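F.,

This is the one I mentioned.
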């Protein structure tokens, strides 16, 4: 894979990214919560872009992967700023934003900010508003009081933390409540055996989007990660449809 580069933000945060230049809209991949650009979907998308001489940008949010910072300081607003800074600094022309899980929430915030530069959106097990529907009232009360909430992590030995700063910021970023002002083509992929994000969330997102060009693909035996060979092939076919 192309060597990792670093962009220094105004406050000294160093954001790790990988970039390949090419034709067509540049695909920007946004990983999920506590994920980074080394994952299977990100790698497959990047290699597909290189093979077809298309533009692609991967990045690690601050506090994740090779980027500097403390994960506890991470918020949707902070990570949106990082994504938009990299796009502004390194990407020319239209942008195709792709988000996985939490990245499927962040992709909406980024897409809205891009306005006319947005060529389209691809959501993979998108999880907008998960701080609302994904937590119990007790957990939400803990977070509102400034406590960290820890949950079992099915993908690793350490529990998954949600920090009160992330929660407070997220409360102002809900996108399933009102119409989401995005008019670009949107493709949503979701597994119906997703144990983390109910597939119905993608249907709710489809209804909330202003765009009329929205398609939802449900994979009956697909889990949350959608990282099997067949899942990756379907994802890349959706990506190719934008070119």
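My design for it:
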């Amino acid at each position: 894979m192309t060597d990792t580069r670093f962009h220094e933000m105004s406050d000294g945060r160093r954001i790790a990214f990988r970039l390949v230049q090419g034709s067509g809209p540049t695909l920007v991949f946004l990983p999920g919560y506590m994920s980074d650009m080394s994952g299977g979907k990100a790698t497959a998308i990047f290699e597909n872009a290189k093979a077809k001489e298309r533009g692609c940008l991967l990045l690690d949010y601050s506090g994740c992967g090779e980027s500097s910072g403390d994960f506890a300081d991470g918020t949707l607003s902070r990570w949106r700023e990082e994504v938009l800074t990299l796009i502004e600094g390194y990407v020319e022309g239209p942008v195709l934003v792709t988000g996985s899980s939490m990245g499927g929430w962040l992709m909406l915030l980024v897409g809205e900010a891009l306005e006319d530069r947005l060529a389209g959106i691809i959501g993979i097990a998108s999880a907008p508003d998960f701080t609302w529907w994904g937590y119990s009232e007790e957990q939400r009360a803990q977070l509102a009081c400034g406590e960290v909430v820890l949950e079992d992590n099915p993908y690793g030995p350490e529990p998954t933390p949600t920090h009160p700063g992330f929660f407070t910021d997220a409360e102002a970023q809900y996108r399933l409540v009102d119409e989401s002002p995005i008019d670009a083509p949107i493709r949503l992929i979701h597994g119906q055996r997703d144990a983390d994000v109910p597939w119905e969330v993608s249907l709710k997102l489809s209804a909330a989007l202003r765009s009329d060009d929205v398609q939802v693909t449900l994979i009956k035996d697909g889990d949350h990660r959608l990282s099997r060979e067949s899942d990756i092939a379907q994802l890349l076919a959706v990506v190719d449809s934008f070119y």
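The chain has a mean pLDDT of 97.

Talk soon.
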